[in-house]
Each structure stands twice: as structure tokens, then as C-alpha cells.
TrEMBL record:
Residue span, ParB-like N-terminal domain: 56-146
Lineage: Bacteria, Bacillati, Bacillota, Clostridia, Eubacteriales
Organism: Desulfosporosinus lacus DSM 15449
Compositional bias of kind Acidic residues: 371-383
Region (Disordered): 354-383
InterPro entries reported for this sequence: Chromosome_partition/occlusion, ParB/Sulfiredoxin_sf, ParB_N
Protein's name according to its UniProt entry: Chromosome partitioning protein, ParB family
Gene3D superfamilies per the UniProt record, alphabetical: 1.10.10.2830, 3.90.1530.30
Amino acid sequence: MATSAAVATQQTKPKPRLKNLDELFKLNEDHKEQVPETVTTEISQTSNEVQDTIFTTLPFSLMDDFKEHPFRLYEGERKKDMVESIKDKGILQPLILRPKQNDRYEILSGHNRKYCGIEAGLEGSPVIIKKNLSDEDAWIYVIETNLLQRSFSDMLESEKAAVLSLQHSKLFSQGKRNDIIAALKKLENPHDTSENSTSAEIRKSSNTRNALAEEYGLKPNQIALYLRVHQLIDPLKVRLDHNELPLSVAADLSFLKETEQKSLDKCLELNGFKADMKKTDILRGYSQKGKLNEENIFLILNGELGCPPKKKRAPTFRLKQKVYSQYFTPGQKASEIEEVIEKALEFYFSQNHNREQETASQESAAYLSADDADHDYDDEQAM
């Protein structure tokens, strides 16, 4: 009987409060041994399913990237740090997936964890499977999980463009968006009932540019630029992220046809050209006329086509102080000085012209005299 009482007491013992996802899935240092070393392809029968949510482990081989995933994978030191962290501690935060056909799953959150986990030598990861999600809901998860993990200002330019474009479109229902943000916060800290349990606040209900500008601390015209940038092909977005294209130039290039953008990227890659606003305006003009082919793109970027010829500028001349003080007074007006110099130049060149005429006349007379002398000599020889 004592044993039964002990069991009953153990069963009714309250669970400690959970502070984050690590504790929720028992993936901290105290519970590492509970995560199986080899994951199976079947969902555990003991998985907790609450409101179409399943907690389990799955192999990476069953996980597909989100279609049109707008965020870039980690590179360089950032990727290296995550790989080392996973080697040391494992994947502490579960990936969020939704079911697909043929027993496969689409990643909504955790693309970097998947690829860094593979590089760290893992076969799979703890996951949260969200069933019965619409495409709209899936997009909200993709965007909001990234905004919860890092600030908008930390994102690459193309990522900012993706976030703003999706929120500006009619794709998102604000009510659903708020519900999902609240659910994500609940996953992060299930027992926190306050409205502001994380640093990411639920945003205002509006899809207008002004509302987005206010929400993200941008000006409305910046929002317009980002919305245009989202129309670029991926290689040009990468150039924007690498600071090879200014935001305003990238926005203007988005008006080019997709084939023209591809030709432009190829030309930039092969020749190392830079695109500025003047050249971009010319590119757009030729595109509107249907004349923007690979040859013209090269000529425009090389400065040989469309750019007006540079005007020849008169050289700047300064009068030496010694000469100035010799002929002019300190209080004399600039217009008076200019008039004097102009008259002096007229006199100089008129005198020089007269000398040239006198010299030419003298040379002509000398030539005629020499010619007459030759004729006289010839006559004497004839006699």
C-alpha cells in the first residue's frame, strides 16, 4: 500500500514551470539522454498532440525546404558557430514543420538548424509538426519565427523586402497573424500569460505603406523601394545584400523584364561593371523601347551608349596677387576687373593680328623680289 501511495504521490506531483522551448522538449543538459541517438522515420505513438500540434523527432531526409523561402542560409562564421554549437549541445530548439504528401514534411522554421545539424553529423532533430495549416498560415509562421529570432534591422536587404512585401500584400489576415504570433510566444514560454512576454510585439492591423513604415521605423518611400526590390531575380538580390547595388538602383532595376535582369546580371558578372542611377535610367529607357539586348546592356554599363557627351569646361584661371596689386585696387569690383582684362586681351590679339599681317606682307614681298631677280638672271643667260 505504501508503494501505491508513493506512486500516486509521484503521479500528482506538479510539473515545474517551463521557461523556454529547451525545457518544453527536455533538451537541456539535464535531459539530453532522453533524445534518441538514432531517429526513426515513424512518428512516436507517445507524441503529444494538442490542437493539431505534434511533438516528435524526425530524420532530416524527410524534411523539405519551404517553397520560395525568402531568408538566406547562414554563411561564414555564423554558420560555423552554429555547427560547433550543435556539435556541443545538439539542436536545442525544435524545427517547425507541416505535413506534405508522401509522408514528407515542409520546414516552416529551422532551415539553418537542419543544414548545420547535417554538417555537425546529426541524422535528425526534434520537431513540432503543425497539422492543417493553410498556405497563408504557413507563410505567417515563416515570417514571424524569423522576426522573433532576430530584429528586422539585422536582416539582409532582400529579406527585409520579402517581409515587407508579404505583409503589404493581402496574403496576411491580421487576425490570423496575431493568433499565430501569440501561439509562437506560448511555445517559447507556455506559462507566461502577459501580453508582452517577448521582445517582438504584435503589430498593428494595417497593410498600408504608412503603417509598415511606422511599424519598422522606415519612411514610406523606403517601403516603396523594398516592395520593388522584392521583384528582382535572386542573383540581383544577392548583389544587393553584398552591397554591390544601392537600394534605389536595385529598386529601379526591378522594372526590367526577367530576361533583361538575367542578361544584366551576366554582364555585371563577366565585366565587373557597376550600375548607378544614370545608367539604370538608360537601361529602363531602352527596356521600354524594346531595345535592351545583351549588346546594348554592355554598351550602357561601359558608358558608350545613352550617356550624353561630356561638355568641355573652360580651365580655371587665377590672377597672381603680384599682378593684381600692380594693376588693380583692393576695392575694385570684379566686373570692372573683368572688363579691363577683356579690353587688354582684345588689344593684345588685335596687335598680334596686325603683326602677323605685316610679317605675311613682308614675306610675300621678299618672295616676289626673289622671283623677279631669277627672271633677270635667266634673261642675261639667254643673251
